[in-house]
Structures are given as C-alpha cells and as structure tokens.
Amino acid sequence: MSADRTGCRAIYVTQKSGNNGLNQLGGDFTLQSAAGPVSLSDYRGKVVAMYIGYASCPDVCPTSLAIMSQALKNLNPEEAAGVQPVFISVDPERDTPEKLAQYSNFFFPTMVGLTGERSAIDDIVKRYGAFYKIVDMGDSAMGYAVDHSSRTYLIDQQGQFSKALPHGTPPDGVVAAIRELLANG
Q: In the chain, how long is the greatest CA-to-CA distance?
C-alpha cells in the first residue's frame, strides 16, 4: 500500500496468473455521463480501457490516467479508433457527470467519465474485483479521501473482461495489451 500526504492510498492487489476466476469478473453496467446514460454494451466492437477511481484523487488516479492517455496516443489512429477509454468514479457525492466529463477529457478527448448511484457503483466495483473505502480526513478541507485499488481493466470487443493491468504498468505495456485484444477481436 502506498500513502501520500493527503491520505489517498492506492491498494495494490496482486492478480494470480492464468485464468483463475477471470471468467467470473466483469459484466455489463449502466451509469451516467454528462451526455446521459452509458452502458458498457454501448461499446461492443471496441476494446474498453476502464479505470475506477475519483476525480479528487491527488496522485494515484492522475498518474494512472496519464499512463492510459500516453498509451492511447502511442496507438496509430486506426487502433485508437477501436478503443474506448472509460473513467468510473466511486465518489458520486463530489463527482457529477459534468465534472467527470471535464476531468476525463483533460486526459484524453474520447475518455468518458461515469458515475451513478452508490449501489450501482458498488456492484461494478465488486464485479470487477476492485476496492475502495471512504477515509475521513478530519480537519482537512477535502473532508474525506478514498483509498482504492488502482488497475486498468481491459474489456474485449465482445464486452468480456480480459485482464486487469496493475498500477504502474508503463504505457508500452498498456499498448501491448490493447494491441493483443485488437488483433484477437
């Protein structure tokens, strides 16, 4: 676990090699974007690169989203057109769909920011094997932070969970994993 001075921590969870339980992770969902409801199934035919975090995260989320952005920029235009980046917030109290649109677009122009009811978010977090926990920060102006897992989830063109890339996977590693899915699609 890594902590920063604001209390936000990325929770590093190791993933077992092989296909142990991978078929049990994932699934369709519907959340809200600034343009209205968005379902994972809306992106059938594309590889989805999905990250779960929150917009007020001081360093873990921006670092991971910057890596995803760099990876997408390293794809050729045809490859990039076959990928949909998605950012899901676990902080619906602060992250409105409009705020998430602005935040997500800062990292990549086609990235879609999504949020929803706490129950819907919790269901997605559980189904993708992610984790988050609200942490009270006492006298801080932020009020609270969110400890959360930090992985980039890759979903194939048929909407099936493929793999979770661990925090810190370099852009070239993200590109290789996306290209593998694009080639097999």
A: 51
Please give the angle made by the CA atoms of 163, 126 and 110, to the nearest 5 degrees.
55
Residue 107 lies in a domain: yes
The pTM (predicted TM-score) of the whole model is: 0.86
**Parent domain of 94:** 27-177
pLDDT tens, residue by residue, 109-145: 999 999 999 999 999 999 999 999 998 888 777 788 8
Q: Is residue 16 part of a domain?
A: no
Specify if 1 maps to a domain. Answer: no
Assess if residue 19 is contained within a domain. no
Number of domains in the chain: 1
Q: What is the CATH number of the domain that holds 170?
A: 3.40.30.10
Residue-wise pLDDT for 17-44, tens only, equals: 344 444 579 999 999 999 999 999 999 9
- Listing DSSP states for 8-65 in one string gives -EEEP----SSSTTGGGS----EEEETTEEEEGGGGTTSEEEEEEE-TT-SSHHHHHH
Name the β-bridge partners of 115: 32
Long-range contacts of the stretch 150-153 (C-beta < 8 A, 24+): 150/10, 150/11, 150/12, 150/53, 150/60, 150/61, 150/64, 151/13, 151/15, 151/51, 151/52, 152/49, 152/50, 152/51, 152/64, 152/67, 152/68, 153/26, 153/48, 153/49, 153/50, 153/51, 153/52, 153/128
